[in-house]
């Protein structure tokens, strides 16, 4: 018999009537067997229903797990893409920062070189000014030393002789001033 065409339920077994025959089966034993078969069918039907319920529950759980798995996979792919994007962006930003730092370092170094050249030029100018000052000072000192030496060679004058020569040459107005000088 094909399982799809013939469905036997416990009620079918309990209601089944067999025709009476002369040399038939023992009715009590057939009834007992029918009751055992019906009980087993009840048990199997309940078990089948329980299994169907479990299958539906497990199928629902499986669908939920698959949805979660799909969501987790999508989240994982998204996180990997985000990580990759963040890493790429970080690398680009790091390269930009390095380039900016190198540019700033070049500007600082160039500024320091210009400043160093300016300081070197100022030092050279100060050295030239010092040499010029020392040369001028030496010339002035030599001139003063020459004047001192020239004054040392002049004989000392007699103050009385100076006064007498002045008194001869004085006029009345100059005599008064000479008297002031003597006094």
Keywords for this entry:
183 residues; mainly alpha; rod-shaped; disordered C terminus
Provide a descriptive summary of the structure in words.
By secondary structure, this protein is mostly helical. 85% of the residues lie in helices and 0% in strands. The C terminus is likely disordered.
In short:
The protein has 183 residues and is mainly alpha-helical.
Question: How are the secondary structure elements laid out?
Answer:
Layout: H1 10-15, H2 27-153, H3 159-169, H4 172-182
Mean pLDDT across residues:
84
N to C succession of SSEs: HHHH
Helix content: over 70%
- Shape category: rod-shaped
Q: For this entry, what is the oligomeric state of its chains?
A: single chain
Counting DSSP E segments of at least 2 residues, the number of strands comes to 0
Judged by helices, strands and strand pairing, the structural class is: mainly alpha
Distance between the termini: 174 Å
Unreliable spans are: 178-183
Helical run tally: 4
What is the percentage of strand-forming residues? under 5%
Biggest pleated sheet? none
Radius of gyration (Å):
68 Å
């Amino acid at each position: 018999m094909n399982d799809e065409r013939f469905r036997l339920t416990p009620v079918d077994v309990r209601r089944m009537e067999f025709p009476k025959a002369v040399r038939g089966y023992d009715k009590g034993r057939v009834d007992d067997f029918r009751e055992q078969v019906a009980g087993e069918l009840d048990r199997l039907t309940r078990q089948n229903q329980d299994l169907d319920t479990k299958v539906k529950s497990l199928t629902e759980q499986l669908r939920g797990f698959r949805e979660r798995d799909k969501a987790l996979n999508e989240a994982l792919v998204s996180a990997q893409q985000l990580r990759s994007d963040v890493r790429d962006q970080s690398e680009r930003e790091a390269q930009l920062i390095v380039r900016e730092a190198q540019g700033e370092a070049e500007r600082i170094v160039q500024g320091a070189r210009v400043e160093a050249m300016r300081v070197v030029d100022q030092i050279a100018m100060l050295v030239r000014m010092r040499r010029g000052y020392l040369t001028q000072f030496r010339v002035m000192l030599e001139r003063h030393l020459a004047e001192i030496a020239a004054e040392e060679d002049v004989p000392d004058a007699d103050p009385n002789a100076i006064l007498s020569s002045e008194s001869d040459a004085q006029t009345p107005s100059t005599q008064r001033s000479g008297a002031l000088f003597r006094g």
